[in-house]
Design goal:
Structural class: alpha+beta
Helix content: 40-55%
Bound molecules: iron/sulfur cluster
Number of strands: 8
Low-confidence stretches: none
Strand content: 5-15%
CATH architecture of the largest domain: Orthogonal Bundle
Distance between the termini: 65 Å
Strand order of the largest sheet: 5-1-7-6
Shape: elongated
Length: 354
Amino acid sequence: MINNYSYIKFRNLLMTWHEEIDRGLPWKETNDPYRIWISEIILQQTRVAQGRAYYERMIDHFPTVRDLADASEDQVLSIWKGLGYYARARNLHYASKQIIDEFNGVFPTTYNDLRLLKGVGLYTAAAIASFAYNLPYAVLDGNVFRVLSRFFGLDTPIDSTIGKKLFSEQAQRCLDKSDPAGFNQAIMDFGALQCTAQSPSCDICPLKENCVAFNENIIDLLPTKSKKIKVRSRYFHYLVIPKGNQICLIKRKDRDIWQGLYELPLIESEKSISTSQFIDLFQETFSINMVDKRSIKKISTKKQRLTHQMIYGNFYIINMDLSIKTARWKSKEELKHLGVPKIVDDFLKEWLQE
Ligand code: SF4
């Protein structure tokens, strides 16, 4: 049973630790809800070192919520290119239009209104509410789950409904109501810098005397999860079709990964296949009978891991006329301004340099 004294102790130790830390991040020096929102969305699933450059690019190109709303989806995806999780960029764009249309261009100021924005979940709403408006909402992200789980010795799986509710209550109890922004920043920084997932710095941790995981030597066991992520393998066969100084691309439209991004024309197979099996599949897809099978040659393979999928990409140069209704012919220069999945981007960069 965790008593009130434990929450106060945790809070005080944490805040004292934080006073000595200064990460000097640009979004920490503002209480502009727009900038905080952009930074929080970027930092989901992205390390600070990588996220910082994207944050600056986004703010440079779209300094206000209206600039973002006025941009085209292609422009937004192009700035986001390489960061992955493109649904986040599309949601940002959509939500910026919501702010213009439904909130008269004024950024929502309450937690409940923030939750109405597309892509703004419990974590992001709490982060904006506390950092921009100093409202008493505790953030709960991977760092916070880990810190609370270890310090208080909580072994309820963090991916279960009951676990999410329990940790959310604990975070709220720990919150320093007089300084929600400071507390939220402190616990997130503590998880990112001190109580890290792989090698927490327990030896020099000012919380170790009161930390259950440290004192019971169960740091590696916490936090717990009930499910393992299932990773689905997918086999993408990309058609590289050059014409003059242009290359054939298509825009992904399905309700699938990378929606709205540009990529090479694609044939997907259910399992890994040889080049000769691919040529059979290619002929079947385009209803053609090829005389010279040397018109198709595999020139590269690449793979990309997503959270729930492993993409195996094969790239085939196609030396024949092919009619693709949705083809968009783009030059090397135009390619630079398009959002393209990383696996295709990596291939094109290599291939276009040759
Ligand atoms: S002692 Fe170790 S496990 Fe406990 S809070 Fe500090 S860094 Fe985390």
